[in-house]
Specification:
- By secondary structure, the protein is of the alpha/beta class.
- The chain has one domain: TIM Barrel, CATH 3.20.20.140.
- The protein is built from eight helices and eight strands; from the N terminus they run βαβαββαβαβαβαβαα.
- Strands 1, 2, 3, 4, 5, 6, 7 and 8 form an eight-stranded mixed beta sheet that branches.
- Strand 5, helix 4 and strand 6 form a beta-alpha-beta unit.
- The two termini are about 30 Å apart.
């Protein structure tokens, strides 16, 4: 299976990543990716960019080295009501808006509380991806989450970085098996991303694709197997 896009990576502007957009685009071109989406951390993440950085994403070319560049953010969930560190006015400008649970920005609760937070986030029509819902330190009810993802037509991320041996996230493989089973059951779509923090990782999906093959997850529920399918999913919630 070939994936044509990688819609989650961080540049030096995130504060704890090590490559520039130019380096990512060059690497993506060499790996024959058709599209990448830059998604630096929102301003609530310690060390990340000011909101004005995201206001200025419009100056970035739509293509670099023949790779299409989407502009976005990995927004931080900052409240139990599903609130994010980006306003709706600013969120509307993002091609890709990932909403993720990061412990520096919100303290995890019980499995019921964390699941409820994700469901509140899904009500925000500008969010088109739920980022790395895979960490046992932030427990989630995957039956409820995947059923809601299908209802809200939102993409759940399979994060390759979470599956690597060096990952700090707990029990990601086991949690993704449950998530993928739930997505197949409820017809919910996923997106496979690298969550790269250095350009050499862009387009490196090996761990995620191996797991997808192991569980026999259907290709037609993976958004980034074609640019056309991906773009339809990214805008479907926005009307």
């Amino acid at each position: 299976m070939k994936l044509v896009a990688d819609c989650h990576f961080h540049t030096v502007s995130s504060g704890h990543a090590y490559s520039t957009l130019d380096e990512y685009a060059r690497e993506a071109s060499m790996k024959s990716l058709e599209l990448i989406a830059m998604t630096d951390h929102g301003p609530a993440m310690p060390g990340s960019a000011n909101i004005y950085y995201f206001h200025n994403l419009r100056v970035i070319p739509n293509y670099l080295y023949d790779v299409e560049i989407l502009k976005g953010m990995e927004a931080n969930i900052i409240g139990t009501d599903g609130s994010l560190d980006i306003s709706d006015l600013d969120a509307e400008m993002m091609d890709v808006l990932i909403a993720s649970f990061h412990m520096p920005c919100l303290r995890p609760g019980t499995i019921q509380e964390n699941t409820r937070v994700y469901l509140e986030v899904m009500k925000n029509k500008y969010v088109n991806v739920i980022g790395h819902p895979d960490d046992s330190r932030i427990p989630v009810d995957y039956e409820v989450l995947t059923r809601a993802a299908a209802e809200y037509d939102i993409l759940l991320e399979i994060n390759n970085s979470s599956l690597r041996p060096i990952s700090f996230r707990a029990n990601a493989k086991e949690n993704y098996i449950r998530l993928l089973e739930g997505c197949a059951k409820h017809n919910a779509s996923v997106i496979v991303n690298t969550d790269s923090h250095i350009h050499t990782d862009i387009g490196e999906f090996n761990e995620a694709l191996t797991l997808i093959r192991e569980v026999g997850f259907p290709k037609d529920l993976i958004a980034n197997t074609s640019v056309e399918r991906l773009k339809k999913k990214l805008v479907s919630r926005r009307g």
